[in-house]
Input
Amino acid sequence: MLRQKRFATARTALTLCTALGALAGAALVGAAPAGAAQGDTPLAPGVTYDEFDIPAAKGTAHAHVLSVDLRDPRVRLDLLYPGAVAARATVSQQAIAQGAVAGVNGDFFNISETQHPGVEATGASVGPAIVRGRALKAAVPNGQRFGPALPPGTSTEDVFGVGVDHRARIDALSLNGSVRTPEGRLPLGGLNQYALPVNSIGAFTSKWGAVSRVRATCGTDTDRAAPCSTDTYEVTVRHGRVVSTADSPGSGTIAPGSTVLVGREAGAQRLRKFFKGEPVAVRHRLVASSSLIPYRFALGGYPVLDDGQPLPGLDDRASAVRTAVGIADRGRRLVLLALDGAPEYRSGLTIAEVASVMRDLGSADAFSLDGGGSSTLVAREPGAATVSVRNHPSDGRERPVPNGIGVFSTS
Output
C-alpha cells in the first residue's frame, strides 16, 4: 500500500529550458505558441496563468497552467460542486456560482450505466469529498470506479486536499461510521456514494440530491458491471427516529435532518429489523491515513508523483487529454494543469508523462484528476467579473462534472 505523507518535500522549480533535457518522452517548450500568454499572467493576488506546448511521445500537447501561492493569506482553495453530490454542472458554472477566480475539473464520476439498463446514472464522483471542512461523501469500492486503471498501491480513497493550516497534501480518507439502535451498533459502509460495498449499509443525507439511490446496490466490490442486488431495503430516519421503510431504494430530495439508510444483502437483512418510531443514531466521519490536521477541502483522483518520484507502474502507453494538480514548496504552492483538447493537441500525454511534466514544473507530489472531455481550466481575464474557459475541451464544449478545485482570491 502506498504510504502517504503529511507534506511534500520542497523541490526547486526547473526552468523550461532545463526541462527540455530532463523529461523522458515529454518536454516543455520555453517559447509559447502563437497567441499564447507570454510567461505568467497575474490573474489575482497569489494566482498566475501560463500556457505552453509539450512535445510528447505521440505528438504535441498544449498545457494550460495555474500557479497558486498558498502563502498569500488572500488565497484559498475549496471544492467546486453544484450543491448536491448526485448532480453535475460545468466547471465555469460552478466557479461563477461560488465566486472563484479560477478552477479545474475534479474527480472521476459515475458517467453512465450501460451495464444496468433502466438504472439512472447518478453523476456522483468516485472518491471522498470534503467541502468547507465538512465531509460530503466517501469513496466507492475500487472495483466500482470509473476511469483508467489505478496505479499499483493506490485506491479510491486517495485524495488531494488542503488543510486548515493552509497547506496542500496528498492523503487517503476512509469512512468511519455507525448506525446505533437500542439493540446494538451496526457499521456504516457508505456515505452519499453511488456504489455500496456488498452486504453493507450506506447513509444518504440531504447533500445527496434527488437522484435515485438504486445505483448504490448495483455491481460488486470487484465488478462494476455485476447485476443489481435483489436483496435491498431502505429506512428513513428523521430527527433520530425511524419514520418509514421500503423494500427498495427510492429517489427524491432528502429533507435536512433526515438520513436514508440503504442496505444490500446482509445489510438489508439487518435493516428489516428496524421499526417505525425506533430511536436510531447515525454517525459518520472521514479519517485521514496520515495527516492529523483537519482538511478544509479534499477530493478524489489518484497520485502519480511521490516525493519527486513517479509512482511505480504508471501507464506509459495510453495518451489522453489530462488534468492534474501538483504540490510544491512543502504544500505552500500548487500547480494546476489542464491539457488542451483541440484536435491538433488531442493526442495528449500518458500518465507517466504527466508525472514527469508535473515534476519539471516544480512539483514534489502530483495527483491525476479526470481527463478526456472533462478536462477544463477556467480563469478570470484581468479585469473581468467572471471566469472563462481557457483550454478547448475535447468534446467541443464544457462537460458537466460533479466537482472541481476552486481557486479563490480576495484583493
Observations:
- The chain has a mean pLDDT of 91.
- The first strand starts at residue 41 and ends at 44.
- Helices lie at 16-22, 91-98, 266-271, 351-360.
